[in-house]
């Protein structure tokens, strides 16, 4: 477990057009436990979960009683299928998903957890390698990471499907990418490149590669136009950012993170119900939920990793270098900015990003920035 360090403040009032803003600087190392660059600083007093305990030399399997080596006790198996074990940890840092419907929840809300952390504004980082056994898996499987989920909201025993409330980022088996929004399980809808109902090819028309480590950073936080760090109650939209490292093959020292896309959910045109429906059936009497277009401003505080395959007791996919941190999306590192391009002030709603095209050996991406003003940019 990692606790956020001390922060220092520098309040600078200036004008960007007619906008006044304040800057918070954090005295924090800008790399995580694995040497991977952080894009946003960690919120003071929060607790980080990471997979460093997968590399403790103890090979083991995970069934239904969690991981005995997870000091935070947040490892929670919510898988479908019938594997034994559901997850294998090799003791060298890699976790293998072994069932036809693996669901690895980072459940920081259990009654027995040593510490608790409600994850809302997050930077979720991992590397994934697709297994050969997933070749016949469904298109919607792949590297799938979700945030703001309810622990028992995905057809889990004792739960309610109305508690699903999840945003996903997906590098899909069919080679496409998207963001997915799910209010009530299993209904959901997706978008990419600012177009609701669109899924964009990621690998030049090829499928998600096998036997290659691919990095994902999925960043989600509440936002207030024009992102000037106003009071929390003014942050009534949700911003999603998605980045990829497709060239280092899982070597953080050689990582080159590039933006795949982003979205701003203002509750206007992106539904979280099947087929883009405007309303959610069956939840109003349970939790008042009815508007499928509403942004998921809070959720259930849980993160998860999943994929889908067609068989049990085979390697569907592998994860390593996993971390999730509660972040300050309006703060900066005291040592300087990181390699992140801040979102432009000039866009509203769900807005498009530059198209991203890839090949199996790396990336070939247009590098011309979208028009607009940026707070910080590092080349």
Task: Describe it.
This protein has one helix and 24 strands. The protein has one domain: Sandwich (Jelly Rolls), CATH 2.60.120.560. Strands 1, 4, 5, 7, 8, 10, 17, 18, 19 and 21 form a ten-stranded antiparallel beta sheet that branches. The radius of gyration is 20 Å and the shape is globular. Mean pLDDT is 85; it is low at 10-19 and 340-379. 1% of the residues lie in helices and 31% in strands. With 379 residues, it is mainly β. 48% of the residues are buried.
CATH superfamily: Exo-inulinase, domain 1
Largest sheet at a glance? Answer: 10 strands, antiparallel
Strand segment tally? 24
H/E element sequence: EEEEEEEEEEEEEEEEEEEHEEEEE
Taking the alpha carbons of the first and last residues, their distance comes to: 32 Å
Poorly predicted ranges (pLDDT <50, ≥5 residues)?
Answer: 10-19, 340-379
Kindly report the average pLDDT value. 85
CATH topology: Jelly Rolls
Q: Fraction of residues in helices? A: under 10%
CATH architectural designation: Sandwich
CATH class call: Mainly Beta
- Relative strand content: 25-35%
Class of secondary structure makeup: mainly beta
Global Rg:
20 Å
| Tally of individual helices | 1
Shape: globular
Number of domains: 1
């Amino acid at each position: 477990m990692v606790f956020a360090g001390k922060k220092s403040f520098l309040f600078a009032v200036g004008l960007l057009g007619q906008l006044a803003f304040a800057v918070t600087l954090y005295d924090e190392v800008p790399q995580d436990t694995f040497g991977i660059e952080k894009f946003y600083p960690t919120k003071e007093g929060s607790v980080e979960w990471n997979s460093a305990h997968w590399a403790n030399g103890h090979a083991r399997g995970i069934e239904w009683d969690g991981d005995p080596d997870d000091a935070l006790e947040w490892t929670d198996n919510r898988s479908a299928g019938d594997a034994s074990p559901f997850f294998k940890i090799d003791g060298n840092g890699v976790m293998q998903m072994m069932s036809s419907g693996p669901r690895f929840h980072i459940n920081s809300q259990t009654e027995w957890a040593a510490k608790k952390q409600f994850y809302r504004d997050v930077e979720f980082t991992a590397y994934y390698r697709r297994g050969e056994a997933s070749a016949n898996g469904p298109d919607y499987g792949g590297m799938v990471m979700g945030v703001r989920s309810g622990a028992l909201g995905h057809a889990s025993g004792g739960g309610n499907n109305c508690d699903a409330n999840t945003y996903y980022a997906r590098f899909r088996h069919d080679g496409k990418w998207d963001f997915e929004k799910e209010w009530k399980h299993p209904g959901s809808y997706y978008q990419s490149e600012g177009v609701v109902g669109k899924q964009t090819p990621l690998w030049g028309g090829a499928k998600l590669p096998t036997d290659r480590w691919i990095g994902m950073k999925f960043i989600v936080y509440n936002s207030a136009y024009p992102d000037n760090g106003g009071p929390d109650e003014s942050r009534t939209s949700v911003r999603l950012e998605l980045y990829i490292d497709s060239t280092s093959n899982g070597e953080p020292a050689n990582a080159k993170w590039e933006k795949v896309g982003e979205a701003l959910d203002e509750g206007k045109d992106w539904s979280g119900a099947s087929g883009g429906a405007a309303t959610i059936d069956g939840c109003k009497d349970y939790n008042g939920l009815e508007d499928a277009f509403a942004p998921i401003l809070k959720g259930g505080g849980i993160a998860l990793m999943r994929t889908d395959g067609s068989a049990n007791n085979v390697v569907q996919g592998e994860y390593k270098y996993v971390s999730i941190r509660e972040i300050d999306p309006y703060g900066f590192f005291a040592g300087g900015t990181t390699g992140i391009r801040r979102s432009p002030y000039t866009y509203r709603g769900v807005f498009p990003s530059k198209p991203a095209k890839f090949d199996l050996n790396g990336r070939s991406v247009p590098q011309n920035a979208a028009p607009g003003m940026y707070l910080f940019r590092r080349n």
